[in-house]
Amino acid sequence: DLEIIIINDGSTDSSQQIIYKYAKTDQRIKFINQKNVGLSSTRNNGLKIANGKYIAFVDSDDFIENKTAYEAMFNTAEKHSSEIVIGNFNFVNEKNEKWSQFNEFLYLDDNNFDQNSFLKNKTFFYGNLSQGVWNKLYKKTFLKKNKLNFPDGVIFEDTPFSIKAISISNKISIIPDIVYDYYIGREDSLSRKKGVKQLDF
């Protein structure tokens, strides 16, 4: 029970052909081909057409840790009426070596928070655990109600989106499961480009 939205943001390689191949064999895939408008606008375009009860984001150079990752996050959201579910994740380098920094901070006495208790908890300050959007599941009605979108023209656009979402959410849940593999070290990645604003609050 899954909707997969793949947006080809003006790629110049064989991505479009690869996506077409998978879309022909899997009816869950919804494919959009567009001129290059950047990551923020692309994510916003995906949000506009998403029909699912919950929303998750996957960057093009990363991958999901296992087939049950979203199931675990979904079950948590349903059980606790969570507006945001946060999962653990791996960093992955070019040698395919994996490591996670956050295991010790995920095993808390109570992994379900309201916004005030979460913001006061030290877990919030540990980098991508809170700042990235790709290790999270968001309730769609929560995003729509609060008109949450990604800011254009910046990199690390995850940060203002994620921090704003966390700061206004009434129920946040954390699970210890590693749900995402975040690839680092690629020299031509967007985050390493010069001349692009990094943060815009």
Protein architecture, described:
Strand 5 (84-92) and strand 6 form a beta hairpin. The protein has eight helices and nine strands. The chain has 201 residues and is an alpha+beta fold. Helix content is 32%, strand content 22%. Strands 3, 4, 5, 6, 7, 8 and 9 form a seven-stranded mixed β-sheet that branches. The chain has a two-stranded parallel sheet with strand order 1-2.
Write the layout of secondary structure elements.
Layout: E1 4-9, H1 15-25, E2 29-34, H2 39-49, E3 54-55, E4 63-64, H3 69-80, E5 84-92, E6 98-99, H4 103-106, E7 112-113, H5 115-120, H6 128-131, E8 136-139, H7 140-145, H8 158-168, E9 172-183
Parallel strand pairs: 1-2, 5-9
Antiparallel strand pairs: 3-8, 4-9, 5-6, 5-8, 7-9
SSE string, helices as H and strands as E = EHEHEEHEEHEHHEHHE
Residue windows where pLDDT falls under 50 for at least 5 positions: 191-201
Return Rg in Å. Answer: 17 Å
Helix content: 25-40%
Shape: globular
**What is the average of the pLDDT values?**
84
| Helix segment tally | 8
- Main beta-sheet strand count, sense and barrel state: 7 strands, mixed
| Total number of strands | 9
Structural class label: alpha+beta
- Give the N-terminus to C-terminus distance in angstroms: 36 Å
Strand content: 15-25%
Brief descriptors of the model:
seven-stranded mixed beta sheet, two-stranded parallel sheet, 32% helix, 22% strand, 201 residues, globular, 8 helices, alpha+beta
Provide a quick synopsis of the model:
The chain is of the alpha+beta class and 201 residues long.
